[in-house]
Amino acid sequence: MNLDKLQAEISVDEGKVDTIYLCTENHPTFGIGHLITNNDPEYKEVIGTKVSETRIREAFESDINTVLKDCEILYSDFYELPEEAQHIIANMCFQLGRPRLSKFKMMKAAVDARDFKEAANQMLDSRWAKQTPNRAERLANRMLNLAMEQ
């Protein structure tokens, strides 16, 4: 999997901020949607504190490694899927986390059957799609393109 491409894709959706800020859920965050935990050196730093490019990359790499492990748990054949499907699922997992992505049971069944058109339909038939319509539509369209390539 091309991690640089995946980072670029997720950066478009998450944004990339080189200071600590409060996310929409009011949690301290920086970089590419990295939620600060008490294990981070930035824990208890004030909002607006500058974060280096090196640290942003380090946090993203850690986050994406977790996401990819979660994707492998949810999809036992994750790396056998087309790379585009891997990127779409990883993007969703990055945003939603494994517990919420695991609730997309009908999408998973469609992906398992390599029915990417139905997977796209299931993505759009969700609360997630209503909450983040631009991201959901963009990712669903990419999934639908996979169906057209079959």
What do these coordinates show?
The chain is mainly α and 150 residues long. The chain is 61% helix and 8% strand. The protein is elongated. It has helices spanning 3-14, 53-74, 83-101, 105-112, 116-124, 127-131, 133-149, and strands spanning 17-22, 28-31, 34-35. The model has no long low-confidence stretch (mean pLDDT 94). The chain has a three-stranded antiparallel β-sheet with strand order 1-2-3. α4 packs antiparallel against α5 (116-124).
The percentage helix is 55-70%
Number of helical segments with 4 or more residues:
7
Q: Provide mean pLDDT, rounded.
A: 94
What kind of sheet is the major sheet? 3 strands, antiparallel
Helical/strand content category: mainly alpha
Distance between the termini: 20 Å
As a percent range, the share of strand residues is 5-15%
Compressed to H and E, one letter per element, the order equals: HEEEHHHHHH
Low-confidence parts = none
Number of DSSP strands? 3
Strand order of the largest sheet: 1-2-3
Please compute the radius of gyration using only Cα atoms: 16 Å
In short:
The protein is mainly alpha-helical. The chain has helices at residues 3-14, 53-74, 83-101, 105-112, 116-124, 127-131, 133-149, and strands at 17-22, 28-31, 34-35. Helix 3 (83-101) packs across helix 7 (133-149) and helix 5 (116-124) packs antiparallel against helix 7.
Question: What labels would you give this structure?
Answer:
3 strands, 61% helix, three-stranded antiparallel beta sheet, mainly alpha, 150 residues
